[in-house]
Structure formats: structure tokens, C-alpha cells
Design a protein that fits this description.
Distance between the termini: 11 Å
Helix content: 40-55%
CATH topology of the largest domain: Aspartate Aminotransferase, domain 2
CATH superfamily of the largest domain: Type I PLP-dependent aspartate aminotransferase-like (Major domain)
Number of helices: 11
Strand content: 5-15%
Structural class: alpha/beta
Strand order of the largest sheet: 1-9-8-5-4-2-3
Order of helices and strands: HHEHEHEHEHEEEEEHEEHEEHHEH
Low-confidence stretches: none
Number of domains: 2
Shape: globular
Mean pLDDT: 97
Bound molecules: pyridoxal-5'-phosphate
């Protein structure tokens, strides 16, 4: 089977995307460099207004990364040592890392087999057993929203806050509402591999709450509310004008790129049905009214063998995530063991992300699926 050996298909092809926008982006970079204003400023303000409008929130506050967006959100809600925060063990490390950075403790709840997101049916008993939980961080993993209505209902009943980890899901919708617009604060990432990726690190926080927006704006500049006047102890986590200028160009293309991802996902689903390989989600859940496919993930037997086979064929793939957070060495003190979150552990052993970027051609997907078929033949 050497159908694809001459053609390399990377997991993500940022070069192909860059070619479409190179001239526009370079003009913006020259403009910002000539202005010599690099930190926050007008470009950041304009991006913030545009992201707020795109996400359906009243405010958006730029910062240095998605990880910082989560941490600043926790700081703004005054989550600190002695508090617990409920989240999923099946996510990128930053979700739990942010909780620990503010001195709080993550309390994990397993995910659903068919969405990778928090299993809301398990949450009530965990909340009852953990009265110190002061916030929930649902993660909208891979571009599909978690089931927010029951999460918000439980949070309201328990008087606790919700921070949406929307790092992977800009523009994703839950019953028509955009990711980041449902909880008290949303945290988005502009890491280059995200659907709206900068030319370096960046992040943003979304909220409808004017007082929280003001606090977040202060916390990203050392808690400063006036010249050399510090209302809170914050951090240095600012978004660069260069990143904002690049992101503003890319934002204009985002819906077109998302449509490409949706088209590719539909193409994959038809091919995977023929191969009888499960896709997660098989179809977006009814409440996931817009899935933005930051990743397209299949569930497969002999996963590592398949990945090695694809690599030999020049096809990129990735395991998101091989070790759930409750089993990470840095969380050994939480006292978890293998078997505590069985769905997360199973998914960690069986899931594989395939190329899904909008520049991927239908024939590339056919080659990938042919190669997968050959592995199992
Ligand atoms: C689910 C999730 N949360 C948080 C982050 C952190 O974002 P960043 O890499 O911008 O710090 C990421 C991105 O990698 C992510 O995927």
C-alpha cells in the first residue's frame, strides 16, 4: 500500500493557510512596527470588540495566552487556596494547571464516551461530596460544547461560578449560543493550532459582567486601576498589538475556515461509516448546534499501531490526550489511581486526531481513509 507515500499530509498545515493571507498580514505587521506601539493599545481594543461581538458577549479582554485566561478568570472570581474547582480530567493540562496556580484544588469528574465532555449525570453527587467547590470549568473539547444548561443549573443551585474553557472552540455554539457566552467568564486561546491562531501566544476572556471585565482588565496589568495604583495583586499578561493586528485579519476568514472544517468532517464521516470506524461524536449532540472541529477524532483499536502506520505513509495524526490529568505525576498528591475515571482512561488509549484543517482536499481525506482501511485489512 503506497498510495500516499509520495504525498505528505500534515496534521495541520499553517503554511497553506498563511499563503491565503500573507500580503494582508504582512501589511498589518509593517503598520504596527512602524507605529512602535507594541503592548495593548488600539489594535488590542479593536480585536476585543470584534471577539466580544463574534462570541455574543458584552466584553472581551485580551491576555497573553489561553492558560492565563483561565488563571485570570479564577483570580477575578477570587478562587484561592482552600477552594476546589470541578473540571474534567480529559483535557489539555492548562485547565487543571490554572486551578492549581491560584492555589485551589481540581476535583475531577469523568467525561461522556460520545462527546469527550463533562458527564453531567455524575456531577451532582460530586458537588454534594465537595462543599468546597466554588467553580466549575467545563471544557468544550475539540470544538464541541459541553452540555451547558444542566451545568449552569447545578452551578446556580450551589451558588458557584462557571468558567468555560473555550480554548478549542471559538465560534462553537450551544443551542445557538456561542462558546464563552454562557458561564460567568469564557477563556479562549489564540495558540497557533487553534481555529483562530495568532503568530505566537495569545488569549482572551469573554464576559457579560461589566465589573468582572474591569477586574480582568486590571488583573492582566498587575491589578492596576490607576497610575501606580494597585487595587489587586495581578500578573503581567498582556496581548501584543502585533498579535491583535494579525488576529484581526484572520478573524475575517474564520467562518470560511470553519465551513471548510465542517465540510471535511462530513466527508470523513461518510468514509468512516464505510470502514466501520467510530467517530467522536458520531454526530454532534442535538445541543451542539455548531461544532467547529478544532480536532476530528476517531476511536480505534490498535491505536498506536495505526498512528505509526499513518506516519510511515506521510500522514500526520496526534493523540489528544494520552494520559488523563488525574494520572499525571504532578497530581499524585490527589491520591487518584488507574480506574478512577474509566471513560477518560479508555478514550486516552483509543482516540486519534486526524488532519481536519480547511485547506485539506477531499482527495486527501480519501487517501487518509484508504490508508486506515489498509491498516485494518
Ligand atoms: C482545552 C485547553 N485549555 C487551555 C489551553 C491553553 O491555551 P494556551 O496554549 O493558549 O495557553 C489549551 C490550549 O492549548 C486547550 O486546548
Amino acid at each position: 500500500m503506497n498510495t500516499v507515500s509520495e504525498k505528505k499530509i500534515p496534521l495541520l498545515d499553517l503554511q497553506a493557510q498563511h499563503k491565503q493571507i500573507r500580503e494582508e498580514v504582512l501589511a498589518e505587521i509593517v503598520r504596527v512596527v512602524d507605529a512602535q506601539k507594541f503592548i495593548l493599545g488600539e489594535d488590542v481594543k479593536q480585536l476585543e470588540a470584534e471577539i466580544a461581538s463574534y462570541s455574543g458577549t458584552k466584553h472581551a479582554i485580551g491576555c497573553a495566552s489561553g492558560s492565563d485566561a483561565l488563571m485570570l478568570a479564577l483570580m477575578a472570581l477570587d478562587i484561592h487556596a482552600g477552594d476546589e474547582v470541578l473540571t474534567t480530567p480529559y483535557t489539555f493540562f492548562a485547565t487543571a494547571g490554572a486551578i492549581s496556580r491560584v492555589g485551589a484544588v481540581p476535583v475531577f469528574v469523568d467525561v461522556e464516551e460520545d462527546t469527550f465532555n463533562l458527564d453531567v449525570s455524575l456531577m451532582e453527587s460530586v458537588l454534594a461530596a465537595h462543599p468546597k467547590v466554588r467553580a466549575i470549568i467545563p471544557v468544550h473539547l475539540f470544538g464541541g460544547c459541553a452540555d451547558m444548561d444542566p451545568i449552569m443549573k447545578m452551578a446556580n443551585e450551589h451558588g458557584i461560578m462557571v468558567i468555560e474553557d473555550a480554548a478549542q472552540s471559538i465560534g462553537s455554539e450551544y443551542k445557538g449560543r456561542r462558546a464563552g457566552s454562557i458561564g460567568q467568564i469564557g477563556a479562549l486561546s489564540f495558540f497557533p493550532s487553534k481555529n483562530l491562531g495568532g503568530y505566537g501566544d495569545g488569549g482572551i476572556m469573554t464576559t457579560d459582567d461589566a465589573a468582572l471585565a474591569e477586574k480582568l482588565m486590571a488583573l492582566r496589568v498587575h491589578g492596576r486601576t490607576g497610575k501606580y495604583f494597585h487595587q489587586w495583586i495581578g500578573v503581567n499578561s498582556r496581548l501584543d498589538a502585533l498579535q491583535a493586528a494579525v488576529l484581526r485579519v484572520k478573524l475575517r476568514y474564520l467562518d470560511g475556515w470553519t465551513a471548510g472544517r465542517e465540510r471535511n468532517a462530513a466527508h470523513y464521516r461518510r468514509q468512516m461509516a464505510k470502514l466501520r470506524i467510530p467517530v467522536i461524536p458520531a454526530q454532534p449532540a442535538a445541543y451542539q448546534t455548531r461544532h467547529v472541529y478544532n480536532q476530528f477524532v476517531i476511536r480505534c483499536k490498535q491505536r498506536d499501531g495505526l498512528q505509526a502506520h499513518l506516519k510511515k505513509q506521510g500522514i500526520g495524526s496526534e493523540v489528544y490526550y494520552p494520559l488523563p490529568l488525574h494520572l499525571q505525576p504532578c497530581y499524585a498528591d490527589l491520591g487518584h489511581k488507574a480506574g478512577d475515571f474509566p471513560v477518560s482512561e479508555r478514550l486516552a488509549g483509543e482516540s486519534l486526531a486526524l488532519p481536519i484543517h480547511s485547506e485539506l482536499a477531499g482527495e486527501d481525506i480519501d487517501l487518509i481513509c484508504e490508508s486506515i482501511g489498509a491498516f485494518y485489512a
